Amino acid sequence: MNQSILMALALLILAACGGASQTQDNPTEDQATQQFTGANNEVKLMTVDPGHFHAALVQKFMYDQVDSVVHVYAPQGKDLQLHMQRIEGFNTRDESPTHWVEEVYTGSDFFEQMMQEQPGNVVVLSGNNAKKTEYIRESVEAGLNVLADKPMVIHPSEFPKLKSALATAEEKDVLLYDIMTERYEITTMLQKALSQKSEVFGELEKGTPENPAISKESVHHFSKEVAGSPLIRPAWFFDTEQQGEGIVDVSTHLVDLILWECFPEEGIDTTEVSVVNARRWATELTPAQFEKVTGMSEFPDYLQKDVQNSVLNTYANGEFVFAARGVHGKVAAIWNFEAPEGAKDTHFSMMRGTKANLVIRQDAPQNYQTTLYVEPISPTDDFEASLRTALDELSSEYPGLNLRASENGWEVLVPEEYKVGHEAHFAQVTEKYLEYLVAGEIPDWEMTNMLTKYYLTMQAYEMSRGAGS
Questions:
Q1: If exposure means fewest CB atoms within 10 Å of the residue's CB, which of 115, 277, 306, 330 is most exposed?
Q2: Residue 430 pLDDT class (50, 70, 90 cuts)
Q3: At a CB cut-off of 8 Å and minimum separation 6, what does 371 contact?
Q4: What is the pTM of this model?
Q5: What is the Rg, in whole angstroms, of the alpha carbon atoms belonging to the chain?
Q6: Is the pLDDT of residue 22 over 80?
Q7: E-assigned strand segments in 293-425
Q8: Domains of the chain
Q9: What is the rounded distance in angstroms from the CA atom of residue 75 to the CA atom of residue 124?
């Protein structure tokens, strides 16, 4: 064989070897980005540092499109142990058991190892928030899709990274999405639907800072049960430098709902919103309360900065008022240690219309179940007829809705089958994300509002600490 042919063959072999090495150790952008078709098992999850129980709730049910093998990258420790126990509980339950197989890598370089191996195509993030924004940015830059628990950013200094990640996701055709479970709560969905019925609701008021057009308050508890077992929280959950303050955490859901309900499928740009006022305050935990929810008898060193007179002060509470296209909204996130006997986390919401207010209550009179009320501003004889007509129009999507008179108007009666509970909402969000993967894109309004809601929480964070006030 002539020398030139031998040289050509040698070059081809070297090129092939180089290409194989790149595919295995450092996937190209084309290889990392996948066109999803909805086929069975084509979505392969990589769960990173699952320190929050929401990471496990993504896997409470199986999905045909998602491979049963999930690759977990995390440091060895209690957070990982609890995550694995929750997955095992789903796999071994009597009713509709799952069959997840967890392939686990532990080590201080867990994130770097995930980025090098990339055995999956969707990164799931739900845990310690201190590095979450950076994990999001690096994952997206590597051409990986990301499904992230809220909040995606907890400090204004990190906001530029999130903004960059959202832009990069669009450039690389990968999907970055946060888990907004509260959109799937039935009374919230009905509140939104009825606000679009002008014959019942009229038009949305603009409101004022003192009397907003829409208000949402969420009350949570550190001590609670999840999946039928007492929830053990990691100690870092009480460190606002790792979990985030309440004004940037749970408030994310509430801001999202306000934009989603008031401006359906409309993208609200950051230039169209502003924070009017904001404040924060602490929840106090005794050593005994801290031990009950963490299993730790002492406050760790990183929490000592927040300990006064042997009591831990966690800034888990915050509220703020903002304006979006002239509409004033108020959000409040409150954390108590433990709910009263028989009570659970609660939610309050009011949308004020020119004809009626749509109010969600979840207190003792409602037996701590979310309940939607329609309260006319000036009751008329034909209001009930208009309301029943509106419900009939919603019956194709929500069969079985009914009414009964209440003190200030009407209570919307919702069939039990729609009350699936908070934990089931994670599957609903995941299913929506899988739809977006097949579509190859997230709607523009979703992407715009994702950035805007975090812009608002970051502005509120600064204002609550005196900056900009």
A1: 277
A2: very high
A3: 187, 360, 361, 362, 411, 412
A4: 0.90
A5: 24
A6: no
A7: 307-308, 311-324, 327-338, 346-352, 356-361, 371-376, 402-406, 409-413
A8: 24-178 (3.40.50.720), 182-464 (3.30.360.10)
A9: 15
